[in-house]
Amino acid sequence: MFVSLLIVLAGGAVGYFFGLPMAQNAMKSKNWPSAEGTVTVSRLSTHTGSDSTTYGADIAYDYTVEGVLYTGSKVTFGDYSSSDPSHAREVVNRYSEGKSVIVYYNPDDPKTSVLEPGANWSSFMVAGIGGLFVLVGLLGFASSLKKVIRGTDAAPPSAPPILTIQQ
């Protein structure tokens, strides 16, 4: 039962603190103001683990809002790496170094920006994974609670002692 509660708490925390803000920014970004910017970094990044390599697009851009220079690195809300480099290569090719771009920024927090506003499937992935953990944890907790209430969670009866006859 304790493990189920930990799964609920961990999943809820990930979904609430990481996934929800990402999804909200993705949806709101369609209505954000824009500024002209310039891509300053555009390269394929690789991350090699013990058994696989993932590829991502490492993009950075500068833009100015009300005379203040900012640097952003989000292409979309929900950027991701993959074991297939084709998506990352496509992003790197689309945003080559030195290219002029339109940057969409949060008017309440101009350091939060994105090149491609709006939501897509990956914008909701972290919130969805957090929600899935909450669901699985709640199901486990409900199952454990049900067993406790019915009294079926008690330890199984011990086997009768083996009798030995001494001669």
Layout of secondary structure:
Blueprint: H1 2-28, E1 34-48, E2 53-65, E3 68-72, H2 86-94, E4 100-106, E5 109-114, H3 125-150
Antiparallel strand pairs: 1-2, 1-4, 2-3, 4-5
Helix pairs in contact: 1-3
Q: What class do helices, strands and sheet pairing give?
A: alpha+beta
Quickly count the domains. Answer: 2
Portion in helices? 25-40%
N-to-C SSE series? HEEEHEEH
Instruction: State the end-to-end distance.
Output: 50 Å
Please state the CA-atom Rg, rounded to the nearest Å.
25 Å
Biggest sheet strand order reads 3-2-1-4-5
Shape category:
elongated
Total strands: 5
Mean pLDDT: 79
Low-confidence stretches: none
**Percent of sequence in beta strands:** 25-35%
How would you characterize the overall build of this protein?
This protein is an alpha+beta fold and 167 residues long. It has 2 domains: 64 residues; 84 residues, no CATH class. The protein is built from 3 helices and 5 strands, in the order αβββαββα. It has a 5-stranded antiparallel beta sheet with strand order 3-2-1-4-5. A hairpin with a 4-residue loop joins β1 and β2. The protein is elongated, with a radius of gyration of 25 Å.
What's a concise summary of this model?
By secondary structure, this protein is α+β, with helices and mostly antiparallel strands.
